[in-house]
Give the backbone structure.
Amino acid sequence: MGDRAFDREFEGAKREAARADRIEPRAKSARYDRRTNRIVVELRNGASFMFPAELAEGLAGASPKDLAEVQVTPSGVGLRWSSLDADFSLPNLLAGEFGSKSWMAKLGCNNRGEVGKEESRTARSSRRSRA
């Protein structure tokens, strides 16, 4: 590949990376909120989201000190807790996936990451049948 072709490809790759930064969810920062026991993630686009630490595989039961050591990956597409050996993909977290399939099943989640829907439905049904 010649210098010109390389330069064209390199510039195209930079444009695509800048575009991805604008439209794909990328973390700007993350922190542990001890008061609410939640991980708070600020996105590069100005939005933010949070989730209970207890929902995430590898974070459940961790000390506040360990939870506070959250790091954003350089690309912004992941969160990492080195001391807990826990890594999470931002797109997966946003989709409600907080761990492996077996972890999600243990939490009682359906395929969309909704917790406790089945239990709620069952409880409502049994309350109606007693009435």
Remarks:
- The first helix runs from residue 3 to 23.
